[in-house]
Amino acid sequence: MKLLFDQNLSPRLPRVLTGIYPESLHVRGIDMRDATDTQIWEYAKTHDFVIVSKDSDFQARSLLYGSLPKFIWLRVGNCPVNQSKNYFGNIPSRFILSPRTKHSPI
């Protein structure tokens, strides 16, 4: 699984998670720091990424436009990168990833 981290998450996360999700990226790493949600959505869809964000706009977009790309709505407050890392240890059991992606139980 390739994760694409939105600008509202630390750009250090892909590096910290490289052992679990080696192909993951942050939008800053692909010159999309100021990209719109639509641009991020299309990039993820085209390049087979799962979007990870704290932004509820992606949740609304997933309900409007369907299953691809998948979306993980990280619903936690501000926390250190090392704490964030713990949320990604086992995504299939910690998050709901359905065709009409719901919210995470976190």
Biggest beta sheet attributes: 4 strands, parallel
> What separation lies between the terminal Cα atoms?
19 Å
Q: What is the helix content?
A: 25-40%
- What is the number of E strands? 4
Radius of gyration: 12 Å
Based on helices, strands and strand pairing, what is the structural class? alpha/beta
H and E order: EHEHEHEHH
Mean pLDDT: 80
> Strand order of the main beta sheet, please?
2-1-3-4
* Number of separate domains: 1
Helix run count: 5
Q: Beta-strand level of the residues, as a percent range?
A: 5-15%
**Based on CA inertia axes, which overall geometry fits?**
globular
Q: Any low-confidence stretches, pLDDT <50, length ≥5?
A: 92-106
How would you characterize this protein structure?
This protein is α/β, with parallel strands linked by helices and 106 residues long. It has one domain. Helices cover 33% and strands 11% of the residues. The protein has helices at residues 13-16, 37-47, 56-65, 81-86, 91-94; strands spanning 3-5, 25-26, 50-53, 71-73. Strands 2-1-3-4 form a 4-stranded parallel sheet. Strand 3 (50-53), helix 3 (56-65) and strand 4 form a beta-alpha-beta unit. It is globular. The model is unreliable at 92-106 (pLDDT under 50).
